[in-house]
Amino acid sequence: MKPACIFDLDGVIVDTAKYHYLAWKRLANSLGFDFTEHDNEQLKGVSRIESLKLILRLGGKQLSELEFDAALIRKNGWYLEYIQQIGPGEILPGAAEFLRSVREYGMRVALGSASKNAVLILERIQLLDQFDAIVDGNKVSKAKPDPEVFLKAAEELGVQAEDCIVFEDAVAGVQAARNAAMKVVGIGSEAVLQQAHFVVPNFMGLRIENVLARFS
Ligand code: BG6
Ligand code: MG
User: Fold this and answer.
1) CA atoms of 25 and 138, how far apart (whole Å)
2) How far is the CA of 33 from the centre of ligand 1 (A)?
3) Does domain 17-83 have CATH number 1.10.150.240?
4) Which protein residue has the closest C-alpha to ligand 1 atom 11?
């Protein structure tokens, strides 16, 4: 059986990572502390709830259950405000072309994202029809680095974990793929994504034939 591809969304297909960061920073600032881009690296790929727990730990701040839930809603409200205008123009370089080429090559494609906003974003960037299966934050209970999201994607595609190639920009996401015993291509910096099988800066010029050759 041909391997299948599982794509993360934020920071892999679409340039939303910056908006998540801006919304978290705004929340941290409103709680009286700062939140740097360096700290943000730990949050990439991590669910909304786990992200807030991490931020509060970094800021040395405690919230009641009610305040915690309210903070989640505020952050998501700001995030939705930032992505209101999002469109195909924010698809990351080469990502749409790569997705299409994978499908033309006859491979099945799934989304494996922690985001509960995934379908909304895919609709806005007009890529919803490019996926055979979508597993997002509404379908899983365990956050990356837990492998649940990717294992569920493999199950929905009807393929074995070892036949899946994951594309990820986040440390937690790369770990999740490794925990699922899948192959993983890091999208971003080699220094950050050290656990990936190999890393490319983006999809520009990447060919599925070459990816498969690296794993054969
Ligand atoms: C991941 C992002 O894809 O989704 C994280 O990398 C984000 O930054 C997480 O926190 C959850 O997203 P959302 O849209 O459900 O808040
Ligand atoms: Mg990501």
Assistant:
1) 24
2) 21
3) yes
4) 115
The CA 52 to ligand 1 mean position distance, Å, reads 11
Residue ranges for the chain with pLDDT beneath 50 = none
Residues 135, 159: Cα–Cα separation, whole Å: 14
DSSP 167: E
Beta strands in 85-130 (DSSP E): 109-112
Question: What residue ranges do the domains of the chain occupy?
Answer: 4-15+90-215, 17-83
pLDDT at res. 2: 78
- H or E element that contains 55: helix 48-59
The reply to whether CATH 3.40.50.1000 applies to domain 4-15+90-215 is yes
How far is residue 190 from each of residues 2, 109, 123, 214, measured CA to CA in Å?
A: 27, 24, 31, 16
By alpha-carbon position, which residue is closest to atom 6 of ligand 1? 45
